[in-house]
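Notes from the pairing session

We agreed to fold both candidates in a single pass and log them together. This is the raw record for the first candidate, unedited. Please don't reformat it; downstream parsing expects exactly this layout.

Candidate A
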Amino acid sequence: MVPQPPVFLADHAELQRDVILLSGAEGRHAAAVRRLQPGERADVVDGAGLVAECVVTAQSGGGLELAVRARREVPRPEPLMTVVQAIPKGDRGELAVEEMTEVGVDRIMPWAAARCVPVWRAERGARSLARWRVTAREAAKQSRRAWIPEVTEPVSVAGVVQVITRAACAIVLEPGAAQSLGRLSPPESGDLVVIVGPEGGITDEENAAFRTAGATPCSLGPTVLRTSTAGTVAAAVLLSRSGRW
């Protein structure tokens, strides 16, 4: 098996040049950690579908110069996979973001559910959100994605309801629900939304609001998964049935 070239991130304008200067943290990682040498292959993406297939030509100021050999546009996937993720404790949120990015989730929405233990406020909330976004970015590069998942600002119940009403299909993960997620036929286009509750579960009020907005309760099988795992598993099930895999 031929090894795949590493993926790095640069601005869209930089990808339009015939020679890309990979500088800053990306350049240092390429030169000092990956130790790429002239003649080796590397891909550079803008995170929004544009891929530049490159060859390293020289080291430059702690970074690299890369000659562009070809460019290609990767269309935004359909259906668009969104996971509304109740905010878990500790670093489990970052774990969830990493795994969801790897399987192909396109949008991750932190949800301040009533039974969430962490409370994202002021500086703490900003730092936590920043960590989620960095995690999505790094996981996207590792998994060779042309599109970096969007990690939105935290949403309330009202925000989740708005997402449900705009979706082509919205699902609330609910242990013991009559409908099995594995038997659901996802739409071919539009927004496909999965709502993952906190460890303590979704309240009756939250559940009622989501059902009224049009979300379908679905189970993931006979076992109960952690909130940091459930979104990844649900996304994998749906993506495998949507034709994206």
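Candidate B (folded immediately after A)
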Amino acid sequence: MRRAIDLYRRLIVVQLQSQLQYRVAFVLEIAINFFILSLFFVSLVLVLERFKSVGGWVLGEVAFLYGLAEMGLRIAQLLFDGFRDGLFAERIRTGQFDQLLLRPVSPTLQVFGSQLRLRMLGHILQGVAIFVIALNLADIVWTWPKLLYLPLVVLSLVLFFGAFFIIGATITFWTVQPVEAINIFTFGGGEMMAYPMHIYPQWIRRFFTFIVPAIFLNYYPALFFLDKPDPFNLPPFAPFLAPPAGLLVFAAALAFWQFGLKHYQSTGS
């Protein structure tokens, strides 16, 4: 384990050094990404200024959902970028992945540490900024359980979204092409989780409750933090299912990844 951590650290340091060679361009890119993504939140603010609420949730409460989901998605996008389906499919087609298999190091670790785009920090900062705004707008009564649970919810979201980056990469073992449908669960999932779950049709709610447990990663924890009633009358422990739900999806993704590795056949490139 110590050797794996040290190797991952070295892989990341090399990437950081290369990306920080042009620091002005690096800072400008982060700022531009932050500004562009902030426009999406501005549009949400304008909508709520007009309609006052979404499903009975006011701006601060929706911003809480939005910021929480955005932080989880963007941190996962930063950490699991090596599994990005487009990038990984290119490695499969060109035979670069075969080179990883020849090295005496876990291919999972190599892929995990192969890509870290620092410009994604602009995306993460945007999520943090929205979350800070939400904390100022929403009337949250903070307690020790809430303070201790918040980092676990963010970590669970990171594992949840990271799992789908891994699943997308694994599918390319067979398709050799990026699978755009996986974006329904990553970027589309982030957008969906940014709004109260009770505003969606029943079939969507059931799918993201019993098939993909996204409802327990953001919506139910938000009910706990915001002291809002549960419109679906699930058991009282439902708001605290974020860690097991995130771990369950992530473990399933890793198992699928190992299955893909076991049955991988080179493209011959």
